[in-house]
Amino acid sequence: MKIKGVVKGNLIELLEPINIPDGLEVLIDIPDDNSQKETQWQELEKVIGVWKNDEEITEIFNEIDKERHLDCGREVNLD
């Protein structure tokens, strides 16, 4: 279960009610912001530049661009 809270001194005030008994021991995992950002960057690096110099993707984007700029117009009925 994940739940958000706000630290106030040595207390953590939960932002939403939970249904657990008083006195239950809980473990709080506070992620190190730097390690979390490092992990996110490592995941991004796996996909950055994957399509670079890929002729197929260039053709796909060119086709999308053509379709976006097509003026199909609309029928106007003045009757």
How would you characterize this protein structure?
The protein has 79 residues and is of the alpha+beta class. The chain starts with a strand and ends in an 11-residue tail after the last helix. It is elongated and about 75 Å long. It has a two-stranded antiparallel sheet. The chain has two helices and two strands, in the order E-E-H-H.
In short:
The chain has 79 residues and is α+β, with helices and mostly antiparallel strands. It has helices spanning 33-47, 55-68, and strands at 5-8, 11-14. The chain has a two-stranded antiparallel sheet.
Overall mean pLDDT: 86
Total helical elements: 2
Work out the strand percent.
5-15%
Stretches where pLDDT is under 50 for at least 5 consecutive residues are none
Query: CA-to-CA gap between the ends?
Result: 64 Å
Strand order of the biggest β-sheet: 1-2
Helix content: 25-40%
Main sheet attributes: strand count, strand direction, barrel closure: 2 strands, antiparallel
List the helices and strands and how they pair.
Layout: E1 5-8, E2 11-14, H1 33-47, H2 55-68
Antiparallel strand pairs: 1-2
